[in-house]
Every structure is written in C-alpha cells, then in structure tokens.
Amino acid sequence: EQTSRQRLQPGCFERLCAQSEALYAKNFGFSNSPVIPAISVTALAWAGGGEWILTGHSARVLRLTDPHRGRLLATLRGPEALVSLLALSPDGRHMAVASHDRTVRLYDLATREQSALLTGMRRPATALCFLADGGYLATVCQENAVQIWDLETRSPGTTLWGPADDVFVGLALFGESNHLAVALADGRIRIWGPAS
Questions:
Q1: What is the rounded CA–CA span in Å between residue 51 and residue 29?
Q2: Own/partner long-range contacts of 137-144 (Cβ < 8 Å, ≥24 apart)
Q3: Interval 39-67: pLDDT, tens
C-alpha cells in the first residue's frame, strides 16, 4: 500500500510556490509590477500531524501548504526581517515565527493574523518550541540559556541556565510532561524536566 508521502507528485512544491507568489503579488503590492521578487525558503516545519508544511520565506512571506493534495492553504505577510525558525503550537492553532530582528511573532492560523510580538531578546533565536500545553514557548536567545515565555502575558518567565561555557544550538520538547532536550555545540544533550 502506498503511503501519502509516496503519492507526492514531482514538482508539487514548485507549483505551490508559484501559486503563492501570485497571491503575494496580488495581496501585498506587487500586482502592478511585471517582476515578482525571488522568494527563497528560509525556515520550514511540519504541522497538523504531518498534514501541512509551514514555510518562511524571503520577501516577508509565510506559507501554509498541503503537500499531499498539492494545495496552497494560506499566504501570510511575515516579519520585515529574515525568518529563521518556525514552530506550531500543540493544538495547531498558532505558529511561532522567529526572525533576525531578535523577535518572535505569534500568528493565529484561523484568522491568519499576527496575534503577539515577543521582544527584548539579546540576539536572534537559534531554537524554539512550544511546551506541551501551548501556553508557553521556549527559545534559545543566548549561548547558554533557554528562556521560557508566558504567552498569556507575552512576557519572559523562567530562564534555564547552563554552565558559562555551554553553547546551545538546538531545542526540542519530548513527552507530555514538558521535558526539554537541548543540543550543545560539542555534541552533548542537556535535559531539563519540570522539576529541574
């Protein structure tokens, strides 16, 4: 039996990109120009249990696509700065978008509008993920620290610090009890649990 992944047609993603560029031109001010700016992928994440692909692009574009049916579901205006990371909330309702202007924006996928802006980071986020309940977001914005953001108040909460010589390069949530796995540049993995 073929899996849905095997049924993807060659050129499907390219066609979706072309559709999205046309919509972008119509909605965001390029409809009178014969030249649509080149739009390259700068960030990617699976969403909807693997049913959708979220992509961040140059030229202020965010896309939600259905790769199995070859359909573009939405094109959203992204941040002015380059999009570097994407994450989807556990309930599938919100997307977190980290960009090079040292912010993280939250988007409501139902309204397709920006719903929050997280600021005050010392450098652009190099990793991010939602915690299991969707009410908190974890980011790596310093070499040896994970910042937990309270999404209800839109403010930083707990900071998880590693030793001064640690360099954090990746972040992932596993399990329903909010265990965070942090990848270090030297190949080690550091794990924090709820009681850490």
A1: 30
A2: 137/87, 137/96, 137/104, 138/171, 138/173, 138/180, 139/98, 139/104, 139/171, 140/168, 140/169, 140/170, 140/171, 140/182, 141/102, 142/168, 143/167, 143/168, 144/168
A3: 688 898 887 667 788 889 877 888 888 88
Q: What are phi and psi of 18, to 5 degrees?
A: -65, -40
Counting DSSP H helices and E strands in the chain, the numbers are: 1, 15
* Integer Cα distance of 98 and 87 in angstroms: 9
Residue with tokens 């009681």: 195
- pLDDT tens readout for residues 144-161: 889 999 998 989 888 889
H or E segment at 22?
Answer: helix 12-27
Instruction: Output helix, strand, coil percentages for the chain, rounded to the nearest 5.
Output: 10, 45, 45
